[in-house]
Design a protein that fits this description.
Blueprint (H helix, E strand, L loop, with lengths): L2 H4 L2 E6 H13 L5 E2 L1 E2 L1 H5 L3 H10 L4 E4 L2 H11 L7 E4 L8 H6 L2 E5 L2 H14 L3 E6 L11 H9 L7 E7 L11 H14 L6 E3 L16 E2 L22 E13 L4 E2 L5 E2 L4 E6 L16 E4 L2 E4 L9 E4 L13 E5 L5 H8 L3 H7 L5 E5 L3
Parallel strand pairs: 1-19, 2-10, 3-4, 4-5, 5-6, 6-7, 7-8, 8-9
Antiparallel strand pairs: 1-11, 11-14, 11-18, 12-13, 14-17, 15-16
Helix pairs in contact: 2-4, 4-5, 10-11
The chain binds pyridoxal-5'-phosphate (PLP).
Length: 371
């Protein structure tokens, strides 16, 4: 018996679908640069295989959140793409400038103090150092305030020695095209970018790319859409599905009317019912909020999840299936062509991003489209 037969669940990641999604996004950008956001280990799908596949598609600009992620990515791309650019979104903490320089990482400067730190590093080195300047237009998270940005732009030497590659900002409501906040942020971003004449702009995440040409600027930073997440909340999903998650049925049996299923006895059956138990649980990132709400697909038939999610097990009502259509050892589609990442996210009351980044370490991972 190979490991595949023993694996309780198989997570198949289609790198060719990610490549197709990259092309689809790039084609919408009218010549602007299409970077790829691969933070949080490529949204849980593997930053290294994802980035290596995107390099083959011509992508040469990556964003991570943390310097450690950037160091690992840089090491993994030294042969395939030694010249690629890696930006670190979470900024430049005290004492880390040398680390960025050693590993060829470029900081997104989120605060005037970070700009000062980078200016000092440039002076010490006697060389200009590249950076992105992040201005906050409405997230109130990271980024310089409008007043900070004005000071940086007008007080001489505040950006001395910094080769400002882009001014960037981030949208709060981009998945909701009707939201007035998008236009407000756009107006403020235009005003703040004009403080730095001649500097390129970067504004759109995945969803922002679908808000229209005004939002493109010179570089977009998509993440989620590359991985198949729907970019606009209430519209159909133009992206290719990337993830296929199959759980294995460990046991299948009938229970009698009046019996309950799982912890808390939260599901009582009103008639004789056939239950399939699958070897996946919240320890695998199958969120506990899916209890009594999720569904799966077996042999083309959608079956409801019943009972709570356990650490290692979940249970489905398979009474509607023929008895030989559901047996121990069979695989169930937990995420698949008929039940995508956003469907599962809707059932869990969350977003596809959280489903992706919650995938645990126990799945057997298979990559399609590797080099
Ligand atoms: C995560 C992130 C992105 C990518 O966002 P998606 O919605 O996944 O496309 C872009 N920019 C910033 C600043 C981010 O933090």
């Amino acid at each position: 018996m190979g490991t595949s037969d023993a694996a309780a669940a198989i997570l198949t990641i289609d790198l060719d679908a990610i490549a197709a999604n990259y092309r689809l996004l790039r084609d919408r950008l009218g010549g602007a640069v299409c970077a790829a956001v691969v933070k949080a280990d490529g949204y849980g799908l593997g930053a290294v295989p994802v980035a290596r596949r995107l390099v083959r598609e011509g992508c040469d600009t990556f964003f991570v959140a943390q310097p450690g992620e950037g160091i690992a990515l840089r090491a993994a791309l030294t042969d395939a793409a030694p010249a690629c650019t890696i930006y670190v979104l979470n900024g430049l903490m005290p004492g880390t400038a040398d680390l960025y320089l050693e590993h060829g990482l470029i900081p997104v400067l989120n605060h005037p103090e970070e700009a000062e730190r980078w200016t000092r590093a440039a002076r010490d080195r006697g060389d200009a150092l590249p950076a992105i300047l992040h201005v906050d237009t409405g997230m109130s998270r990271l980024g310089c305030t409008p007043a900070d940005a004005e000071a940086l732009a007008t007080i001489p030497d505040r950006l001395a020695g910094i080769d400002l590659r882009y001014v960037m900002s981030h949208l709060a409501c981009a998945d909701d095209p009707g939201n007035a906040k998008n236009r407000e942020q756009l107006d403020l971003f235009r005003r703040l970018r004009n403080l730095f004449p001649g500097t390129r702009g970067s504004f759109a995440n995945s969803s922002g790319i679908f808000l229209g040409a005004d939002y493109r600027f010179d570089m977009a930073r998509p993440g989620a859409a590359l991985y198949g997440v729907r970019p606009l909340r209430n519209e159909s999903n133009p992206m290719n599905q990337v993830v296929h998650l199959q759980g294995r049925i460990l046991q299948c049996r009938f229970i009698d009317r009046g019996q309950s299923v799982g912890y808390g006895a939260s599901h009582l059956v009103a008639a004789r019912t056939r239950i399939a138990t699958v070897g996946v649980g919240y320890a695998d990132g199958y969120l506990r909020s899916l209890g009594n709400r999720a569904s799966a697909v077996i042999g083309g038939v959608r079956v409801p999840m019943v009972g709570r999610v356990s650490m290692d097990l979940i249970t489905f009502d398979v009474t509607d299936l023929p008895e030989d259509g559901c047996r121990a050892g069979d695989l169930v589609d937990l995420i698949g062509p008929d039940h995508g990442i956003d469907d599962l996210a809707d059932e869990a009351g969350t977003i596809g991003y959280e489903i992706l980044t919650s995938f645990g370490a126990r799945y057997e991972r298979r990559y399609l489209g590797t080099d």
